[in-house]
From TrEMBL:
It comes from Arthrobacter parietis. Catalyzes the conversion of L-aspartate-beta-semialdehyde (L-Asa) to L-homoserine (L-Hse), the third step in the biosynthesis of threonine and methionine from aspartate. This is Homoserine dehydrogenase. Keywords: Amino-acid biosynthesis, Methionine biosynthesis, NADP, Oxidoreductase, Sodium, Threonine biosynthesis. Its EC number is 1.1.1.3. PROSITE patterns: ACT, HOMOSER_DHGENASE. Its cofactor is a metal cation. It catalyses: L-homoserine + NADP(+) = L-aspartate 4-semialdehyde + NADPH + H(+); L-homoserine + NAD(+) = L-aspartate 4-semialdehyde + NADH + H(+). Pathway: Amino-acid biosynthesis; L-threonine biosynthesis; L-threonine from L-aspartate: step 3/5; Amino-acid biosynthesis; L-methionine biosynthesis via de novo pathway; L-homoserine from L-aspartate: step 3/3. Pfam families: ACT, Homoserine_dh, NAD_binding_3. Belongs to the homoserine dehydrogenase family.
């Protein structure tokens, strides 16, 4: 049975339970303790950190924190809290503890992008039913305040597209490949040495982390609850130094983008494409200038036009800033009284298949250096309704190890994903094609 939500503060104190004390959690705890007076002045009530739930009390921490705050009894800690901050990560026990907090009537602040992407709709619905607040600014793009602007500042507008660099690891790798000519493996090793990439970087380089964030951005932008299964996901492991160099020569930079876009389906009805994949951007596009491990989100709205939000996308202190922003906002609401803020939905806008996307493409081909090859390739593009915008050719003379060949780099005009896929399939069947080396999408044209 759900308890009545804590909507008012009777004793001038709000009890805060922290679940998890890793890189971000330790900084959140430090700020809550060190800045207690400043936070109280802003809120109108004191935030009392009642405990920190951890797996091991003796594990090393990023910050020096009072030992008496640590506990392994997360359930009891949650049941005695007005505000629960979940920074454990993963699906369980985080999901069970968040639901327990909601049912208890506590406000919840989380940075758990994986859980929100997998089971966000369940959490949102439970919070709505309990009239409590579920906030998650830290789940996307670290310190960048992007979710509140989308939810609040643009709530009277109609967002048409969101493009984001939301994973610092992949942006660092691609930036190193672009600026130094490094191979993928070398750039990844450098990212791991600097602490930008985990020992197991799969979630980053395969795009899973960005896909979870894309689902969250799409849900807020288009007032429909999207899950991870609605996101088309492709990582950066197939991006080669040759792709980076060819893109650079043509005036592009390759970024891993999370994209949520309002489109029309075959019946002319609204739908949303949510996808993550390596993307060519013109170098004059604002997102092209985002370097290193930084993040940025580019929003297009009917009335506001184009907006970009930029900043540090990871790290303990920057992400802790986003967490505390949610905590202060929720605490102010609790001091004033009233129900928790719930999600805004206007109905179901379906997620569209990647086949419905209409964009430009970059195709790399290794072909035989023979007369008529270009004409045959151009004819196949035309037959399937894909128009070539530019084509660059590099000849590789015959040698002792092989016959003469040519490297073709083609950029198309806008076409549907399905038309492009059919074109590439037929090109692969040509006897003059040695290999299709790359197929990448192009945005920002």
């Amino acid at each position: 049975m759900m308890n009545a939500p804590h909507t008012t503060v009777s004793d001038g104190t709000l009890r805060v339970a922290l679940l998890g004390c890793g890189n971000v959690g330790s900084q959140v705890a430090r700020i809550l303790l060190e800045d207690a007076d400043n936070l109280a002045a802003r809120i109108g009530a004191r935030l009392e950190l009642t405990g920190i739930a951890v797996r091991s009390i003796d594990a090393p921490r990023e910050a020096e924190l009072p030992r008496e705050l640590f506990t392994t009894d997360a359930e009891s800690l949650v049941e005695g809290a007005d505000i629960v901050i979940e920074l454990m990560g993963g699906i369980e026990p985080a999901r069970t503890l968040i639901l327990r907090a909601i049912d208890h009537g506590a406000t919840v602040v989380t940075g758990n992008k994986a859980l929100l992407a997998q089971d966000g709709p369940t959490l949102y619905e439970r919070a709505d039913a309990a009239h409590v607040q579920l906030s998650y600014e830290a789940a996307v793009a670290g310190a960048i305040p992007i979710l509140r602007p989308i939810r609040d500042s643009l709530s009277g507008d109609r967002i048409t597209r969101v493009l984001g660099i939301v994973n610092g690891t992949t942006n660092y790798i691609l930036d190193q490949m672009d600026s130094t000519g490094a191979q993928f493996a070398d750039a990844l090793a450098d990212a791991q040495r600097l602490g930008y990439a985990e020992a197991d970087p799969t979630a980053d380089i395969e795009g899973y982390d960005a896909a979870a964030k894309a689902a969250i951005l799409a849900s807020l932008s288009f007032h429909t609850r999207f899950a991870l299964e609605n996101v088309h996901c492709q990582g950066i492991t197939s991006v080669s130094a040759e792709d980076i160099s060819a893109a650079k020569d043509a005036g592009y930079v390759i970024k891993l983008l999370a994209i949520a876009e309002l489109l029309k389906d075959e019946a002319g009805d609204d739908g949303v494409s949510v996808r993550v994949h390596p993307t060519l951007l013109p170098r004059e596009h604002p997102l092209a200038a985002v370097r290193g491990a930084f993040n940025a989100v580019f929003v297009e709205a009917e009335n506001a036009g184009e907006l970009m939000f930029y900043g540090q996308g990871a790290g303990g202190t920057p992400t802790a800033s986003a967490v505390l922003g949610d905590v202060v906002s929720a605490a102010r609401r609790m001091v004033l009284g009233g129900p928790g803020r719930t999600e805004t939905t206007t109905g179901h806008v379906p997620a569209l298949s990647i086949d419905m996307v209409n964009t430009s493409y970059y195709i790399g081909l290794d072909v035989a250096d023979q007369p008529g090859v270009l004409a045959r390739i151009a004819q196949l593009f035309a037959e399937h309704g894909v128009s070539i915008e530019t084509m660059r050719q590099t000849i590789h003379p015959a040698s002792d190890v092989g016959a003469a060949s040519a490297e073709l780099r083609i950029v198309t005009h806008r076409a549907t994903e399905s038309a492009l896929a059919t074109t590439v399939k037929h090109i692969q069947d040509l006897d003059v094609i040695n290999a299709v080396t790359s197929v990448l999408r192009v945005e920002g044209l």
